[in-house]
Amino acid sequence: MTTDLVAALDIGGTKIAGALVDDSGAVRERFQVPTPTREPGEAVLAAVEEVFAALVATPGWAAVRGVGIGSAGPVDAAAGAVSPVNIPGWRGFPLVAAVRRTLGAGLPVTLVGDGAAIAAGEHWCGAARGVDNALCMVVSTGVGGGLVLDGRLRTGPSGNAGHIGHLCVELDGEKCPCGGRGCVEGIASGTAIARWAGEHGLRAPDGGPPTAAHVAAAAREGDAVATVVLK
Ligand SMILES: [Zn+2]
Protein backbone atom coordinates (compact mmCIF):
# COMPACT_ATOMS: atom_id res chain seq x y z
CA MET A 1 0.00 0.00 0.00
CA THR A 2 1.37 3.40 -0.88
CA THR A 3 0.76 6.45 1.23
CA ASP A 4 1.87 10.05 0.97
CA LEU A 5 5.16 10.69 2.73
CA VAL A 6 6.92 13.73 4.12
CA ALA A 7 10.68 14.22 4.00
CA ALA A 8 11.90 15.42 7.39
CA LEU A 9 15.23 17.16 7.97
CA ASP A 10 16.75 17.75 11.41
CA ILE A 11 19.62 20.23 11.69
CA GLY A 12 21.52 19.87 14.96
CA GLY A 13 24.91 20.72 16.39
CA THR A 14 25.94 17.05 16.47
CA LYS A 15 24.21 15.50 13.49
CA ILE A 16 22.14 16.28 10.42
CA ALA A 17 19.41 13.68 10.04
CA GLY A 18 16.80 13.05 7.37
CA ALA A 19 13.84 10.69 7.22
CA LEU A 20 10.79 9.75 5.23
CA VAL A 21 7.75 9.77 7.51
CA ASP A 22 4.27 8.44 6.79
CA ASP A 23 0.90 9.81 7.87
CA SER A 24 0.93 7.71 11.05
CA GLY A 25 4.24 9.25 12.13
CA ALA A 26 6.21 6.08 11.35
CA VAL A 27 9.74 6.59 10.06
CA ARG A 28 10.20 4.67 6.77
CA GLU A 29 13.79 5.63 5.93
CA ARG A 30 16.46 7.37 7.95
CA PHE A 31 19.95 8.71 7.26
CA GLN A 32 22.30 10.90 9.23
CA VAL A 33 25.75 12.44 8.97
CA PRO A 34 27.84 14.30 11.56
CA THR A 35 27.43 18.09 11.48
CA PRO A 36 30.71 19.68 10.32
CA THR A 37 30.34 22.43 12.91
CA ARG A 38 33.90 23.76 12.60
CA GLU A 39 33.78 24.09 8.83
CA PRO A 40 32.40 26.88 6.60
CA GLY A 41 28.70 27.08 5.81
CA GLU A 42 29.15 25.39 2.41
CA ALA A 43 30.37 22.23 4.13
CA VAL A 44 27.26 22.17 6.34
CA LEU A 45 25.08 22.54 3.24
CA ALA A 46 27.04 19.71 1.58
CA ALA A 47 26.11 17.50 4.55
CA VAL A 48 22.43 18.40 4.03
CA GLU A 49 22.74 17.56 0.33
CA GLU A 50 24.32 14.20 1.24
CA VAL A 51 21.35 13.32 3.46
CA PHE A 52 18.85 14.34 0.76
CA ALA A 53 20.75 12.36 -1.88
CA ALA A 54 20.35 9.25 0.28
CA LEU A 55 16.61 9.90 0.74
CA VAL A 56 16.02 10.66 -2.94
CA ALA A 57 17.63 7.30 -3.81
CA THR A 58 15.03 5.34 -1.82
CA PRO A 59 11.91 3.89 -3.50
CA GLY A 60 9.71 5.88 -1.11
CA TRP A 61 10.87 9.24 -2.47
CA ALA A 62 8.30 9.14 -5.28
CA ALA A 63 5.56 9.39 -2.61
CA VAL A 64 7.04 12.48 -0.93
CA ARG A 65 4.60 15.41 -0.98
CA GLY A 66 6.45 17.95 1.15
CA VAL A 67 9.55 18.73 3.17
CA GLY A 68 9.61 19.68 6.85
CA ILE A 69 12.74 21.14 8.44
CA GLY A 70 13.41 21.43 12.15
CA SER A 71 16.61 23.36 12.80
CA ALA A 72 18.59 24.27 15.88
CA GLY A 73 17.78 27.85 16.61
CA PRO A 74 17.32 30.61 16.42
CA VAL A 75 15.44 30.44 13.13
CA ASP A 76 13.65 33.07 11.06
CA ALA A 77 10.72 31.02 9.82
CA ALA A 78 9.23 33.93 7.85
CA ALA A 79 12.49 34.48 5.93
CA GLY A 80 13.30 30.75 5.70
CA ALA A 81 16.69 31.38 7.34
CA VAL A 82 18.57 29.79 10.24
CA SER A 83 21.35 30.91 12.62
CA PRO A 84 22.05 27.86 14.82
CA VAL A 85 24.11 29.00 17.82
CA ASN A 86 26.26 25.85 17.62
CA ILE A 87 26.86 26.04 13.84
CA PRO A 88 28.87 29.27 13.42
CA GLY A 89 29.15 28.86 9.63
CA TRP A 90 25.43 29.53 9.28
CA ARG A 91 24.26 33.01 10.26
CA GLY A 92 21.05 34.10 8.59
CA PHE A 93 21.60 31.17 6.22
CA PRO A 94 18.74 30.88 3.66
CA LEU A 95 18.15 27.18 4.29
CA VAL A 96 14.67 26.95 2.73
CA ALA A 97 15.92 28.41 -0.56
CA ALA A 98 18.96 26.11 -0.49
CA VAL A 99 16.79 23.03 0.04
CA ARG A 100 14.48 24.11 -2.80
CA ARG A 101 17.54 24.42 -5.05
CA THR A 102 18.78 21.00 -3.97
CA LEU A 103 15.49 19.24 -4.62
CA GLY A 104 14.21 21.23 -7.57
CA ALA A 105 10.89 23.03 -7.77
CA GLY A 106 7.60 21.51 -6.78
CA LEU A 107 7.74 20.35 -3.17
CA PRO A 108 6.52 22.71 -0.43
CA VAL A 109 9.23 23.30 2.20
CA THR A 110 8.35 24.28 5.79
CA LEU A 111 10.87 25.46 8.39
CA VAL A 112 10.43 25.60 12.17
CA GLY A 113 12.82 25.58 15.11
CA ASP A 114 13.75 22.08 16.31
CA GLY A 115 12.01 22.73 19.61
CA ALA A 116 8.76 23.47 17.78
CA ALA A 117 9.26 20.38 15.62
CA ILE A 118 9.73 18.15 18.63
CA ALA A 119 6.72 19.72 20.36
CA ALA A 120 4.61 18.97 17.28
CA GLY A 121 5.93 15.40 17.19
CA GLU A 122 5.39 14.74 20.89
CA HIS A 123 1.88 16.22 20.68
CA TRP A 124 1.04 14.12 17.63
CA CYS A 125 2.59 10.75 18.53
CA GLY A 126 4.50 10.98 21.80
CA ALA A 127 4.53 12.01 25.43
CA ALA A 128 2.23 15.03 24.99
CA ARG A 129 -0.48 13.14 23.08
CA GLY A 130 -3.93 14.09 24.31
CA VAL A 131 -2.57 17.02 26.32
CA ASP A 132 -3.63 20.58 25.51
CA ASN A 133 -0.73 22.45 27.11
CA ALA A 134 2.89 21.30 27.03
CA LEU A 135 6.43 22.63 26.94
CA CYS A 136 8.55 20.08 25.09
CA MET A 137 12.34 20.31 25.37
CA VAL A 138 15.22 18.79 23.47
CA VAL A 139 18.47 18.50 25.42
CA SER A 140 21.39 17.71 23.13
CA THR A 141 24.35 19.78 21.95
CA GLY A 142 22.11 22.69 22.89
CA VAL A 143 18.75 23.10 24.58
CA GLY A 144 15.61 23.83 22.58
CA GLY A 145 11.94 23.95 23.32
CA GLY A 146 8.51 24.34 21.81
CA LEU A 147 5.03 25.12 23.07
CA VAL A 148 1.65 23.52 22.65
CA LEU A 149 -1.03 25.84 24.05
CA ASP A 150 -4.76 25.19 23.96
CA GLY A 151 -4.13 22.13 21.85
CA ARG A 152 -2.17 23.90 19.10
CA LEU A 153 1.51 24.26 18.30
CA ARG A 154 2.47 27.92 18.86
CA THR A 155 5.64 28.95 17.09
CA GLY A 156 5.19 32.72 17.19
CA PRO A 157 5.90 35.06 14.26
CA SER A 158 9.61 34.15 14.02
CA GLY A 159 9.24 30.43 14.79
CA ASN A 160 11.13 30.64 18.09
CA ALA A 161 8.34 30.61 20.71
CA GLY A 162 9.30 28.30 23.57
CA HIS A 163 13.01 28.36 22.64
CA ILE A 164 13.94 28.05 26.29
CA GLY A 165 17.66 27.40 25.79
CA HIS A 166 18.68 31.05 25.72
CA LEU A 167 16.65 32.32 28.62
CA CYS A 168 18.97 33.80 31.23
CA VAL A 169 18.81 31.81 34.48
CA GLU A 170 22.05 33.09 36.06
CA LEU A 171 22.39 36.87 35.80
CA ASP A 172 26.18 36.96 36.13
CA GLY A 173 26.72 33.54 34.57
CA GLU A 174 29.17 32.63 31.84
CA LYS A 175 28.98 34.34 28.45
CA CYS A 176 27.03 32.41 25.84
CA PRO A 177 27.79 32.34 22.09
CA CYS A 178 24.32 33.88 21.60
CA GLY A 179 25.57 37.09 23.22
CA GLY A 180 23.72 36.62 26.50
CA ARG A 181 24.93 35.43 29.89
CA GLY A 182 23.94 32.52 32.10
CA CYS A 183 21.69 30.85 29.51
CA VAL A 184 19.88 27.57 30.25
CA GLU A 185 21.89 25.99 27.42
CA GLY A 186 25.22 26.99 28.98
CA ILE A 187 24.31 25.05 32.10
CA ALA A 188 21.97 22.24 31.04
CA SER A 189 22.92 21.15 27.49
CA GLY A 190 24.58 17.79 26.93
CA THR A 191 27.81 19.64 26.19
CA ALA A 192 27.58 21.71 29.39
CA ILE A 193 26.65 18.68 31.52
CA ALA A 194 29.64 16.77 30.14
CA ARG A 195 31.95 19.71 30.85
CA TRP A 196 30.62 20.03 34.40
CA ALA A 197 30.96 16.29 34.93
CA GLY A 198 34.56 16.38 33.69
CA GLU A 199 35.37 19.28 36.03
CA HIS A 200 33.98 17.20 38.89
CA GLY A 201 36.03 14.12 38.19
CA LEU A 202 33.96 12.00 35.83
CA ARG A 203 36.02 10.20 33.19
CA ALA A 204 35.10 8.55 29.91
CA PRO A 205 35.66 4.77 29.67
CA ASP A 206 39.09 5.42 28.10
CA GLY A 207 40.08 7.64 31.02
CA GLY A 208 39.73 10.91 29.09
CA PRO A 209 37.29 13.73 29.76
CA PRO A 210 33.64 12.80 29.17
CA THR A 211 32.02 14.19 26.03
CA ALA A 212 28.44 15.06 25.15
CA ALA A 213 28.35 11.68 23.36
CA HIS A 214 28.93 9.90 26.67
CA VAL A 215 26.07 11.86 28.20
CA ALA A 216 23.87 11.20 25.17
CA ALA A 217 24.72 7.49 25.17
CA ALA A 218 22.98 7.26 28.51
CA ALA A 219 19.73 8.21 26.82
CA ARG A 220 18.04 5.73 24.55
CA GLU A 221 18.16 7.42 21.15
CA GLY A 222 21.12 9.73 21.49
CA ASP A 223 19.13 12.75 22.62
CA ALA A 224 17.54 13.13 26.02
CA VAL A 225 14.02 14.40 25.57
CA ALA A 226 11.92 15.68 28.40
CA THR A 227 8.33 16.77 28.20
CA VAL A 228 6.84 18.86 30.97
CA VAL A 229 3.07 18.98 31.04
CA LEU A 230 1.70 22.29 32.29
CA LYS A 231 -1.41 21.85 34.40
ZN1 LIG B 1 22.54 31.97 25.02
Automatic annotation (TrEMBL):
<comment type="similarity">
    <text>Belongs to the ROK (NagC/XylR) family.</text>
</comment>
<dbReference type="InterPro" id="IPR049874">
    <property type="entry name" value="ROK_cs"/>
</dbReference>
<dbReference type="InterPro" id="IPR043129">
    <property type="entry name" value="ATPase_NBD"/>
</dbReference>
<dbReference type="InterPro" id="IPR000600">
    <property type="entry name" value="ROK"/>
</dbReference>
<dbReference type="Pfam" id="PF00480">
    <property type="entry name" value="ROK"/>
</dbReference>
<protein>
    <submittedName>
        <fullName>ROK family protein</fullName>
    </submittedName>
</protein>
